[in-house]
Design brief:
single chain; 134 residues; alpha+beta; 4 strands; elongated
Length: 134
């Protein structure tokens, strides 16, 4: 006779056999760079990039520059974004004027839409707290 192991399910809150939850699991989050391969991925894990990212976050006062431009202060879930992607301009991958601090939400937004490039470039070259020229 096989024993049935019941669990308290974190998804539905009920007790049922393991693996038999009526609610399907949530889809896994897809991160903006999850598909990267090769030299770009190696670069992003290098100490040179880690130091540059810290420098840019320090320059931007550890604030999302787009949130700040919208009048909000946000210092959560920050990352450094390449305005012109490395794949398009490898020679600018460490250029301060090509790097900007963004929160996760804004980073996802600008990764999907390159219409923001000019605005991000203006933000990256102006001190934090000042409105960028539009």
């Amino acid at each position: 006779m096989q024993k049935i192991h019941l669990i308290a399910c974190g998804r539905c809150g009920r007790i049922h056999p393991r693996g038999q939850c009526p609610i399907p699991p949530a889809p896994r989050k897809q991160y903006y760079n999850s598909g990267e391969r090769g030299p770009i991925r190696i670069f992003r894990s290098s100490i040179v990039w880690q130091n540059k990212a810290k420098e840019i976050k320090h320059r931007d006062k550890y604030l999302c520059r787009m949130c700040l431009d919208e009048g909000r202060i946000n210092n959560k879930n920050l990352s450094v974004h390449h305005i012109v992607p490395i794949a398009e301009a490898e020679d600018r991958k460490l250029d301060n004027d090509n790097l900007i601090t963004l929160c996760w939400d804004h980073h996802q937004l600008v990764e999907r839409d390159d219409r923001y490039r000019d605005h991000l470039a203006a933000l990256a070259t102006s001190p934090p707290g000042l409105k960028a020229e539009k």
